Amino acid sequence: MQNRISSFSAIIDDQSAILILGSIPGVKSLEMQQYYAHPQNKFWKIIFELLKEDFTEDYTQRIETIKKHHIALWDVIDSCERKGSLDSEIKNEEANQIAELLENHPNIKVIFCNGGKSYKNLQKLLGKNYRLPVILLPSTSPLHTVSFEKKIEEWKRIIEFLV
């Protein structure tokens, strides 16, 4: 049985310079109504380490921290049918209005894709020669079995774009 699921609203403001795009929230994130809520997803640990901030479990503080560093979050998929949390199970997807978001937030200077699904979908949406750099990073999902150290190494590319 496939369930129809929907993404969250973008976390973005007029100061945002970096946009990080996932595919669509997993089961735990949907349940908690929080981006990257699965305790084994390394997103928040990686971000806080890169930003040299004290790690917190408090979601409100997490959002305040990324906003302080001019980082925005969203997903490339607005809604889809999916059983479980695997990107490979995504069917009948509808895209988020990424081009419109970027038009409304001209301070965004780079897009990072958290995993291959978001990257492939974004390429289809915006085309390969889009005006902003689009950088594929390894998924922070526990299902992507690259070591934490390797993920951190790849995710360090964000640092050069921090304001």
- What is the H-and-E element order? EEHHHEEEHEHEH
Largest sheet: 4 strands, parallel
In the CATH hierarchy, what is the superfamily? Uracil-DNA glycosylase-like domain
Tell me the overall shape.
Answer: globular
Contiguous helical run count:
6
Percent of residues in helical segments?
A: 25-40%
Domain count, please report it.
Answer: 1
Mean pLDDT across every amino acid position: 94
N-to-C span = 45 Å
* Number of beta-strand segments: 7
Low-confidence stretches: none
CATH architecture: 3-Layer(aba) Sandwich
Determine Rg (CA atoms, Å). Answer: 15 Å
Enter the CATH topology name. Answer: Uracil-DNA Glycosylase, subunit E
**Strand order, largest beta sheet:** 3-2-6-7
| Helix/strand/pairing category | alpha/beta
Strand % is 15-25%
CATH class (first level) name: Alpha Beta
Structure description:
A four-stranded parallel β-sheet has the order 3-2-6-7. The mean pLDDT is 94. It has a single domain (3-161), classed as Uracil-DNA glycosylase-like domain (Uracil-DNA Glycosylase, subunit E). It is built from six helices and seven strands. It has helices at 27-32, 43-50, 59-68, 98-104, 116-126, 148-155; strands at 3-6, 18-22, 71-75, 77-82, 91-95, 110-114, 134-137. Helix 2 crosses helix 6 (148-155). By secondary structure, it is of the alpha/beta class.
Which helices and strands appear, and what pairs or packs with what?
Blueprint: E1 3-6, E2 18-22, H1 27-32, H2 43-50, H3 59-68, E3 71-75, E4 77-82, E5 91-95, H4 98-104, E6 110-114, H5 116-126, E7 134-137, H6 148-155
Parallel strand pairs: 2-3, 2-6, 6-7
Antiparallel strand pairs: 1-4, 4-5
Helix pairs in contact: 2-6
